[in-house]
């Protein structure tokens, strides 16, 4: 168990050092995350607008 933990921590340390050697290495990941958050926000806004429009449309009295 201790061997696996040591391997895991050494792997994390190596990745951390590799990222610090190249400061632009995580840029694409950051861009993907920000884009995903913006898409999720846009979907949420569209859902709220769709509900508002549907509520407004059902409240119209046609006078029939």
What does this structure look like?
The structure is a single chain. With 64 residues, the chain is an all-alpha fold. It has one domain (2-58). It has helices at 2-21, 27-58.
Parts with pLDDT < 50 across at least 5 consecutive residues: none
Order of helices and strands: HH
Q: How does the major sheet shape up? A: none
Distance between the amino and carboxyl termini: 76 Å
Tally of helical segments: 2
Q: Pairing-aware structural class of the strands and helices?
A: mainly alpha
Average pLDDT works out at 86
What is the percentage of strand-forming residues?
under 5%
Helix content: over 70%
Shape: elongated
What is shown here, in short?
Keywords: Membrane, Transmembrane, Transmembrane helix. The chain crosses the membrane at residues 32-54. This protein has one domain.
Q: How would you describe this structure in keywords?
A:
mainly alpha; 2 helices; transmembrane helix; membrane
